[in-house]
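S., here's the first fold you wanted:
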Amino acid sequence: MKVDYFAGGALLTAPAMFDGVIDGVADIGYSHVYYTAGRMPITEVAGLPLGYPSAWVAAQALNDFTDQFKPSDWDKVKVLWMNTSTPSGISTSKKAVRKLEDLKGLTIRAPGLAGDVIKALGGTPAPTPMPEVYDAISKGVIDGEASNFETLRTFKFAEVVKYETSVWQITNPYPFYLVMNQNSYAKLPPDIKGIFDKLVGEYKERSILMWNSVDFVGKAYGVEKGVEFIELSADEVAKFKAAVEPVIDNYVKGMVAKGYTEAEVKGWISFMRERIDFWTAKQIAWRIPSAAGPPEVKPEALIK
């Protein structure tokens, strides 16, 4: 099979990716659900501030959810796999976030549900496109951004921010999807389809582990550039958790308004919480390191 690869934005922009795959502009496309906020409402449960220690845990939980509930969000495409970014932190340029009150008055780049979380924490969300964030921070248009350690390196944010606060306990990762046009998949010969399906399974796990590894590179670059990494105290974690509960409540209300039952939506959330706990225990038991998360998954603990 010959595959023609187009870099991001060359064939389709991220916001146009989903419809572009449905319409056959691209056979396969990769993007995340917040670029079309509200378009995949069931899957957005994975973006609620439930607290994820790593991309590995978040992605495993998201794939379990997709397999279990088969969201109608994806009825028009062939889902190859789902993965997520690593836990989002809060990067700021001038004012450190050490307690909940520190977010008051700060404008933080955060789209979709991530923006709802920032607002609940007392900040002002801005839907600034990622390629524009560096300049927006350097010029003082925004005070920082909410994303993972990886962006400190890939987008050079470590050059314009001074502080990185880890908030994995209430974080909401960015759910990503790799989808294929249904007709393009159906036209594959049976033998090629079998090889394709096998490789998708293999590379799904590679993709999930990749997100864990890139955070280490981003954090190292941040340290090199003098970024201060901040961990919240236990008291502050409790305050942050209480502050974001309305985001979860509002999601439930919004989905009920769309015609789902309250019990059904709360069942999705309970399932995700259970899967987070399950996969966190597996991450610790299998000694899979991550740059964020509880002490048990930090590299310094795993090498003992």
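And the second, which I think is the more interesting of the pair:
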Amino acid sequence: MKKLTHFFIFGMLALVIIQLVSCAEETDCSMTARKMMNAGFYKKLNMAQKDTLDTLTVTALGTDSIIINKDAKVSGESLPLNWTADSTALIFHYTNTTKKDTIKIWHTNTPIFVSMECGYSMTQTISKVSYTKHVLDSINVAYKLANVDAIQNIRIYY
């Protein structure tokens, strides 16, 4: 009976040690978060003043993907860039008009190995932007690297 008690205590102690060791090295994969292109909307007459769009829907050209769906009172958006191509084309749909604007962003995708547990992260550098001028006036590239820090990449003037 004494051996059975010792065996039970040893087993419980082993389980506690295994649980502690298994949680000791939890990998932090937060640096692999999806980096976004951050766009701010501005008035063309006063380029420092933010503009607010009533409602905006953003879709990806050539797909049925809705990226932003009827976002109201918007003065900026975080938009994804394509990981598998060197360009991303987005269509801006405005509510008060049937007009749409297409914005094409050329970018360089560079995969960065993080770790075996986390895999890869993608660094995306914006090289050029082209756009239609149905509603928007112009676009300026302010910061080339897509980021998770909400640093504004492009300024869109209306």
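Why I say that: The CA atoms of residues 72 and 107 lie 28 Å apart. The mean pLDDT is 86.

Talk tomorrow,
H.
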